[in-house]
Design brief:
Structural class of chain A: alpha/beta
Radius of gyration of chain A: 20 Å
Distance between the termini of chain A: 40 Å
Helix content of chain A: 40-55%
Strand content of chain A: 5-15%
Largest interface: A-B, 68 and 68 residues
Oligomer: homodimer
Order of helices and strands of chain A: HEHEHEHEEHHHHEHEHEHEHEH
CATH class of the largest domain in chain A: Alpha Beta
Shape of chain A: globular
């Protein structure tokens, strides 16, 4: 007996994403602008981000966007230095940014509390503006995503990406970036129309035990987030990689039929990803490709088509969507509970 | 027909490690001291590291050691911003550190070349002091490890860790740290005596298809490096995790008989790791534990004993050793070529 998929929380939350991002962009432009003003005024050149799980994947996106668009150096924090070793970093003139859907994990709160003690500028991206974490932020970008009931995060992930994109556009004082960002909800809606095709594509992987997900540059984050969704929802062993890191050793894993999901939207990175897919195909791998580019999709055993090309820096907001749908349908085809995976809760508190 | 293991390059290189580190420590103290002097003189508070593969795992160790011991914020670089997107970061007053056995990968060289253009202080840790990468370093810490012939890096990994430890001790101007570091080669020799026991332990995992490796804090790096060795040598799907990150989602993977290797030497992190192992054991996981602590080893289905406790900040130099031996023996028990894994070369050049 299988569950009716379109009555589940995750199905609804995936489909809410265009509306959530539209709403977020309307609400938080002022906060993003004020935060950008302070960053410029203080001459801040580096950012330390504390986050776990899905939010850590949003942090990976921030590393590339704030780096490429704003020249900022971004370090992912080592929360255990604060919470367990009690040897806090010196933040100097860094912006310290906490990202968390719930705003509850004590180790993330500890990093921001220390930053505040050191009088660093602090900012928080969260869905719960009354949370402990938000209280440590000089600036709070609130996601306004509504309650997320499925354990696996979807709409809060893409709205975290939107928050980072908005901050990047504000820092660049770029109307062109803001205009591009405003078009993302429509592109997302178009991409969601692939849902029936992805449903059909997922069944082939009913008995897949393990796979890798490859992305590089802006979509390094997408590889990590898709891998996490597949682990949470389908209990598959999935490891995310940059294509460059994969060449430095793990390529040894590839044998005929080895499944690899490759995130390859249009942009400067695309030729690299095409070359990488050809290397995999030569070794007989089974490639599943997320792309808007027809020529790239032709390299795939299973193409997952993006409806439209978007500027590469914003592509992670779109390219995760077929991945979310694929993970959901694969779980469904395995008769798993898509809203409440075994063994995990919505809010995880680590110290 | 199986290969005679003790005539292989990797067997010899694993066993050379104590001598390599002794030699390194004798040769490079002056360079480490001069680099530390400049870091202090310039008031540098953050470090950007560019590295791939095994060297990237050494960079993960640097994040914790330079953070905990020296208060430095460490960011792992995003080489594709330099090599593909052509949008270099502003390094500001950062130290930019390249780590590479061969010193050849163009993407890593590109990061250091840009750093030099921006007049940042640059340093390089490499086994090949005549390499392109070394030529971009204001300071070069040369590993003096001798040629590494096995494709999977072992002695160059632990000597990279020794280089980072030496820099940390020089920055702290701490004789106690230097003394502790000088004792590492002897501790390593003692730990290598577990070789026959690890040979026997590996056979049980002949048909293991996938596993996870868990470490946190200083040994987050060890988890990554052991996972990489297992992938390169045994073609097993292995994913490394911090125990905290594992709780935020991937815990859903655990079912009875799920194999997890846990790196848990004595130190401040040990109670966290014990609690984590108990969570795994409650779910029926098969735990393989690397530790010197008797009580912790008793929690394991397969204990991999470290001969002796060392200060926690230096424990990654020791705790990887049983992992290297385990990966080598597991590959051997599967009749794989331990020196030349399928499909990869010693030097990988990515852009």
């Amino acid at each position: 007996m299988t569950m009716q998929l379109n009555t589940t929380h995750i199905y609804r939350e995936i489909h809410e994403q265009p509306a959530v991002i539209s709403h977020f962009l309307q609400q938080e432009q002022g906060t993003a602008r004020r935060l950008a003003d302070i960053i410029r005024a203080r001459g801040i050149t580096h950012v330390v981000i504390a986050a776990r799980g899905t939010s850590d994947n949003a942090a990976r996106y921030a590393k590339y966007v704030l780096g490429a668009m704003n020249g900022l150096t971004v370090a992912l924090a080592t929360p255990s230095l604060f919470s367990i070793y009690k040897k806090p970093l010196r933040f100097g003139n860094a912006l310290v940014l906490g990202i968390s859907q719930s705003g509850k994990s004590p180790d993330i709160v500890a990093v921001l509390a220390e930053a505040r003690k050191q009088e660093a500028v602090t900012a928080v991206i969260t869905n719960i503006p009354s949370s402990n974490l938000a209280q440590q932020g000089d600036f709070v970008l609130s996601l306004h995503a509504g309650e997320e009931k499925a354990v696996a995060a979807t709409k809060t992930y893409t709205s975290q990406l939107a928050a980072i994109s908005l901050l990047s556009a504000a820092l660049a004082e770029s109307d062109a970036m803001l205009t591009a960002l405003a078009q993302i909800p429509d592109c997302m809606t178009q991409t969601l129309s692939a849902n029936p095709a992805i449903d059909r594509a997922a069944e082939r992987y009913r008995y897949m035990r393990a796979c890798v997900v490859i992305g590089r540059g802006y979509n390094y984050a997408t590889a990590f987030e898709l891998a996490l969704k597949l682990k949470e929802l389908t209990y598959t062993m999935v490891e995310p990689y940059s294509s460059a890191d994969f060449m430095h050793g793990p390529l040894a894993l590839v044998e005929p039929a080895f499944p690899a999901i490759v995130v390859a939207p249009s942009g400067v990175m695309l030729p690299e990803m095409q070359a990488f897919v050809r290397t995999l195909n030569e070794r007989g791998a089974e490639t599943i490709i997320i792309s808007d580019d027809v020529e790239t999709l032709e390299l795939a055993r299973t193409p997952l088509k993006l409806a439209t090309a978007v500027p590469e820096w914003l592509s992670p907001l779109i390219s995760i969507v077929p991945g979310q749908l694929f993970a959901m349908h694969l779980a469904h085809t395995r008769d798993y509970d898509v809203d409440a995976p075994r063994g995990i809760q919505k809010v995880t508190e680590t110290r």
